[in-house]
Amino acid sequence: MPAILLVRHGQASFGVGDYDRLSDHGRRQARALGGDLHRRGWRIGRVVHGDLRRQRETADELLAGYAVAPGPAVARGARVERDVPRSVDPRWNEFDHEGLVARLPDRHRRQIASAIGVVRGREPSAVFQDLLEAALEHWIDGAEDAVQGSYSVFAADARAALEAVVAEPPADGVPVVVSSAGTISVVCGALLGMDRRGWLQLNRVMANSALTTVVSGRRGLTLVGFNDHSHLEGPGRPHRTTR
């Protein structure tokens, strides 16, 4: 298996009642990536995603964009989206980011409030990001979350999910995994030999619909590309977002 393509979901609906669905912009991002994969000549053999709605919808839009785009894959008889085998593996799900923030101990919330102060006009997403990173650090330090479970289990499940993709019989094309920033970052951090906090740096910068490439070879799994969002660059393309 030469490569595994890991895709972060498109922009979800932050600040709306149901976060777990793509925004219209997120749908355009996923379609743009699908078209770009086609133009690059990637042949999609199968798609795996978690059971979150935003991951499933990203897979839908990616395959739709892939099916209609012109490019080298057409000449090689690329499948349309309905022909690509799909499967669901919940180990590719994201951690419960909203739940972790909601259950962050009060002492941590007070420390954050003291550190950032009350800034008029500060973006809600920026405030949420500060709370999220504090909640993640608390979780990484070994806090067992009643709903989420432990960070160690989350990280082990993500790596096992990747190993399961590698263990599948070779398909007629590359496997595409649609997941989330935290899950993909945990996998990448492990491949790079980062410590527990290292993956937070990766998680912080990953763009919606970004492409990460892992190669499986004689020496095991190697990360060869991370957070590629070139399909969002240029006139008429959906702009880059991280939340």
TrEMBL record:
SUPFAM superfamilies: Phosphoglycerate mutase-like. It comes from the Bacteria. InterPro entries: His_Pase_superF_clade-1, His_PPase_superfam, Mito_Ser/Thr_phosphatase. Keywords: Hydrolase. The keyword Hydrolase applies. This is Histidine phosphatase family protein.
